[in-house]
Amino acid sequence: MKNILCLFILILLSGCNKKYIIMPNVKGKIYSKVNNKPISNVRIFVSKYAINNMDTIRTDHNGSFLYNGFFVDNYSDVRSMSTMVQHVFILKSDQAYKYINVKKYYNKDDYNKRDTIDLGIIYFENLKSVKKDSIPK
After folding, report:
1. Which of 1-5, 17-21, 112-116, 119-123 has the weakest average pLDDT?
2. For residues 2 and 116, what is the distance between their CA atoms, to the nearest angstrom?
3. What sections of the chain are H helices per DSSP?
4. Are strands 70-72 and 20-23 parallel, antiparallel or unpaired?
5. Separation of alpha carbons 98 and 90, rounded Å
6. pTM of the prediction?
7. How far is CA 66 from the centre of its chain?
8. pLDDT tens, 29-68?
9. How far apart, in Å, are the Cα atoms of 42 and each of 18, 36, 55, 76, 127?
10. Coil, strand or helix: which one is 91?
């Protein structure tokens, strides 16, 4: 009887830490197509109105970045919040603004299954431009 009670308590406690992925962690490297070298200090952000609004992140000296994903504890939040997540990242290097829809860069089967998605090398010049005036302040 004591073993059954311990097993029941373990089952209850193991389900308490479940996290649901609204948007996974995203990592990648920003490179220049001109010289095939990493670009450091590229600023990456999303709209301030997005539910996954973040502090601006910057690429390091290797051109690498890591976006810390958006996770929730309650499954009922998944439906309501998943429609408010912005998958379009704005990138700024010098005075050039570009954007990337990160959802298009990874395997759809991996979305919501993996906690980190690796976009690999992304060439800044290949991304579409966006006018500074069109970005919400």
Report:
1. 1-5
2. 40
3. 2-14, 75-82
4. antiparallel
5. 6
6. 0.76
7. 8
8. 999 999 999 999 999 998 888 878 888 999 999 999 999 8
9. 34, 15, 13, 36, 13
10. strand
